[in-house]
Design goal:
single chain; 125 residues; alpha+beta; Cytidine Deaminase, domain 2; 5-stranded mixed beta sheet; 5 strands; 26% helix; globular
Amino acid sequence: MYEKLKELLNNSYSPYYNFPVSAIVVTKDGKEFYGVNVENANGTSICAERHAIGSAIAAGYKKGDFDKIYIMLSNGEFGTPCFACRQVLLEFFNKDDKIISVDKDGNEKEYTLNELCPFPFNLEK
């Protein structure tokens, strides 16, 4: 995933903060959906994670079809999804699904959705 994420960073549209982010969602049947952050002047930017999830939803995938999501930040450090993205992850991923952050050297840090969102706001609560 490292090379794919690194290459995807080039597709980010981030002229305002100059902080490209890439994401790859993997479904349980092994399909991959790509996303990058897309900024705009009025601040209603789209995060890479939501972009990738939206692509999978547009292709017909539903809650329970997702397995994991990989994330890479352009600064080379480990990162986790923002809180808006965490809420979207809660909507479509299961609590034990993996969120994997990849750094500039290809090292990975793995979290479960439950670890990042221990007190979820969702339909189950």
